[in-house]
Amino acid sequence: MNDDELFDEGDWGDEELDTGLLEEELRRAAAVLDPLPAELQQIAVDAYALHDLDARVAELTFDSLVDALPVRGAGDAPRMLTFQAGEVTVDVEVTAQGLMGQVLPPQPAGIEVLGGPRPGSPLTADDLGRFTAATPPSGPFALRLRTGEDVVVTEWLRA
User: Which burial class, exposed, middle or buried, applies to 29 when counting CB atoms under 10 A from its CB (0-12, 13-18, 19+)?
Assistant: First the structure.
């Protein structure tokens, strides 16, 4: 597409400007001259997918990096996190080997570990609400839990 096709004078007469047409021309020009990076587009899609209107946000109520007393000699202690959304509590332990956690009250749940531009890693909580992931999250992460009709999303944290 050349400049003449982007800005065809036939589209822009002395008449009142059609804003829909102008917007379409500007979108086409931006797509050619300054395309959106694929990674940024995926982040935007993931952020929109995270925005479940029915989802409840689970607030961080405990973080061992902030709330726990330091222990002498504990070099690589796991990070303990607790999230709360109404009657649902999610306890998570993050280590260099991965993460494990439990949904309380105990119940089966589908869980996604969300992190940046990658698709969420799916996990399943058993009947006792326990779940594990073999790899730790790298960078910012959040959890999305689906328990029956209920959707709970944790706050985003940096691993």
Answer: middle
- Residue 6 clears pLDDT 60, i.e. is over it: no
DSSP 129: -
**Residues 157, 141: contact at Cβ < 8 Å?**
yes
DSSP assignment of 38-70 equals: HHHHHHHHHHHHH--TTPEEEEEEEEHHHHSPP
pTM, 2 dp: 0.64
Phi, psi at residue 139, to the nearest 5°?
80, -165
**Structure confidence by residue, pLDDT tens digits, 49-78:** 655 556 788 999 999 988 866 666 556 788
Question: Of how many residues is the chain composed?
Answer: 159
Burial label for 143, CB within 10 Å (0-12, 13-18, 19+), is buried
